[in-house]
# Entry
Amino acid sequence: MSEKQGTRQSRIRNFSIIAHIDHGKSTLADRILEATQALTQREMKAQMLDAMDLERERGITIKLNAVELNYTAPSGETYIFHLIDTPGHVDFSYEVSRSLAACEGALLVVDAAQGVEAQTLANVYLALENNLEIISIINKIDLPNADPDRVKQEIEDVIGLDASDAVLASAKTGIGTNEILEQIIEKIPAPSGDPNAPLQALIFDSLYDAYRGVVVYIRVVEGTVHVGDQIKMMANGKTFEVLEVGVATPKIESREELSVGDVGFLTASIKSVHDTQVGDTVTHAERPADKPLPGYRKMNPMVYCGLYPIDTARYDDLREALGRLELNDSALQYEPETSEALGFGFRCGFLGLLHMDIVQERLEREFNIDLIATAPSVIYNVKLTDGSSVRVGNPSEMPERKFIAEVEEPYVKATIMTPNDYVGSIMELCQRKRGEFKTMEYLDANRTNVIYDLPLSEIMYDFFDILKSSTKGYASLDYEMDGYRVSDLLKMDILLNGEKVDALSVIVHQEFAYDRGKAIVEKLKELIPRQQFEVPIQAAIGQKIISRSTIKALRKNVLAKCYGGDVSRKRKLLEKQKEGKKRMKAVGSVEVPQEAFMAVFRMSQDD
Amino acid sequence: MINKTAHRGAYIHIPFCDHICYYCDFNKVFMKNQPVDDYLDALALEMKGYGADGLPETIYVGGGTPTALNEQQFERLFIDIEHYLMNPSIKEFTVEANPESLNEAKLKIMKRFGVTRLSVGVQTFDNRLLKEIGRAHGANDAANAVRLAQEHGFNNITLDLMFALPGQTETVLHESLERALSLGIPHISIYSLQLEPKTIFYNRMKSGTLKLPGEDFEADMYGQIILELEKHGLHHYEISNFAKPGYEGVHNSMYWHNEEYYGIGAGAHGYWKGIRYANAGPVKKYIEHVCKQGNARVSEHEVTFTEKMEEEMFLGLRLMRGVSVEHFKEKFGRPIEQVYGKQLEQLKARGLIHERDGRLAMTPKGVFLGNNVFEAFLIS
# Structure
């Protein structure tokens, strides 16, 4: 190692920010950008790191990103900071763990009023697993209801970190920012590693760029990568020639090389993000590392749903749009499927519900395709009487009962952190959702971790909403996959006007079939507008009808109002009515609105 | 394409009210402190402009509340109409009147200036409901106003009534219809309550304090109205209108026949030389515009050929006798089947329209679902 490289490496600090949604992560990132003068005021856009509209609207970051910042300490020494952003939702916990693996330290931001939340805890555990140095920051101390002493105590009791030198900060006003910067220098270790060793660079994100191909975000752990190097992806063995390496400051800057401790990007005419899996290791084709970095996992979709264009003529547009999204989203899977009710569409796989919502929203917003999404489903392992087995991700494809030996469904281990007062109602909820109680951890005088094994399908259903509403929003949830178990599951069909609508079929547990059937039938009655004829709605298991209701025929829809000569107003009214119909799907002779297809799945507590 | 001589009407809007009804979303303002005289000046200027283009065959003075004007203002309005718009061979001259502000003096003025028809805003003959919907008159005031008008020689009178009001029952509706019929009037317009933004009812609805009858009840009432009025010889000739033979509203029929008319006054809509236009709504804006440019048009839209066909259908089908197939071909230069073949077939199959004696009209079922029928004729 040259002396220069040695000095440079000793001044690198790599870190992430861990925070619950709304606890101030983006604002703190902005303060750090400001303090390092990475941007002039004019360039400074609020919450710089959240790139896409969608993320900004939802207040969460889903696309990881990293910036290199130069910070001149009061001592006069200049340090190189790499701030790596992490997604803030449980659907993306694997990606979070890979971003954390690219760091030596993490800033833990806790809201001075709200204290530690379950998701924060989960991410802190991920950080500890990756041996990160953690700097505690109690944020929003300027709020009237801030209680930093209590929160300090919580950090010690609940997480088990020494909070004696936690920084009291207000990212909004800038209080505490200097102290945070000093602690980053003092506490977070410089990266270790040998710049001359065989290359090991961790992929923690990638995105597709129409001009440059895939941009791969990497952290160099060992060795050095140069422009022109032949590199190899260790997961699939594919090789590429590096065209460009660089960093974001946050402006994109090209470099000659990235060496130990550097966090930046490379491009190499890679056509698909499927070749650049998060967690994979980049090495040299000629002198490969003898093993990849630990922790790589291929990500498999957990949740499936059917996506259909309302306008059947837009099937090709939908295919193209999914293809475009897939370029940038290695977790998204899709394959064509056909529904009797909805026509041609795609069965799509997602990491979780948030991921599903985001993809749907982008298809509608960026590609202007009105969609019908069927209720999401997990993947069931179905063992048949002939000894074979199938995986079923579409309820309408569930084999007939007589051919089924047993059905297995995915379970999760759910950790719910709650104030003690709500333990009772949470246990009741978990019980109702077929949960199996595992254990309870008393975190401190006020709070408890309730741990349950729960079917994933029940978590997807209305679990989170009920959890929030029955605990006044105080409880928080984290979960991880926990294998498959045999369950007593049935396929329930929904019939409209006597015809089975395949897109409305759901898998239900025997014990809940009647209640679910009733709730779905009632909800559909509410959502499907009156038609010119009476429409019976039925829920059936096999041939047996378990619930029924009827949408009465439309009786009066005519404007008997004195509009005088205002014809344009009459016209607008008719146009609006016509537009509304365009967002409905004709199923047989029944016009069904978009939201009805999700209704079998999304229902409020009162239903 | 042959464009037959357009029937030409004039609508004149008086936007002032002493009183704002809870359901009303028309262009109207409290009379107090309004520049009424300036408004009448502007109105005269606007009338002058249109009058120069040709005199209308029908005139309709609506509001607002035209009878809210005081006697001097009221008379002055008619002097201006006579001066600028009055056609010696006028077919119909209607004025809207509210029971509480219709008096002998105003009746005499109207008689003197050749008004042929009065439209009295009754809404209901139930005192509790009248109060509930924010009307200023009582049931007897309405009946007395009608009698007074009849005594002054106005026999062609139409009453405005409403149904699907909050708390209205079939019995209450029946009583109102009976009372209206007992007055011996030849025409009734009956409208269902529509909840519109910027009305008192709308706000009550949003705060959850207003209970409206549901769709089923509304349908029942509509059926009841058609039955009762037809029984008494008032035939159902348009979705909301009933008349003894020969007393159908001439001015309003012109709207449904998709003909052209002048719209005069604040917020009025007109259709002239192929352009649908709207005047500035706020009184002061209206006056300013007229003073500056002689009219108050703030939006104009040249009706396209397609739109004209659409309007021919969704307006024409409001009439029970429907649209003449022959007339359509004459007016648009192509057979109706060529334009609307598919729609007509579907609507017939669904039992919503039928064709009889060369006319396409809605079936009784179609009348109840009129918006579904009209919608089908929008091409774009």
Remarks:
- The interface with chain A takes residues 11, 62, 160, 189-192, 194, 215-216, 218-219, 222, 239-240, 255, 261, 263, 268-271, 276, 278, 301, 307, 310-311, 314-315, 350, 367-372, 374-375, 378 of chain B (CB under 8 Å).
- The CA atoms of residues 197 and 203 of chain B lie 8 Å apart.
- Residues 1-6 of chain B have pLDDT under 50 and may be disordered.
